[in-house]
Amino acid sequence: MLLLNERITAVAETNVIPLGSFIPIWATVAQESHQPLLLLMEECVAATTPELQANSNVYPIITNKG
User: Fold this and answer.
1) Residue 45 near residue 61 (C-beta atoms within 8 A)
2) What CA–CA distance (Å, rounded) separates 44 from 24?
3) pLDDT tens, 13-38?
4) How many CB atoms lie within 10 A of CB 56?
5) What region does 30 belong to: left with phi over 0, alpha with psi -120 to 50, or beta?
6) 3-state SS, residue 61
């Protein structure tokens, strides 16, 4: 998964997104010899640290299986 810029034309230069902003996400799956696949995002959170840690403040963006 990648974050895209606000124009959805390239990868975002930063992972800092202002509160209330649109979050363009790019996700791909290697289909290979499978039937068509559906990608679902069940949960997504924002955190106050780049990597999730015990002391990170976490804010839900997508919950309850989307």
Assistant:
1) yes
2) 13
3) 988 888 788 889 888 877 788 788 88
4) 14
5) beta
6) strand
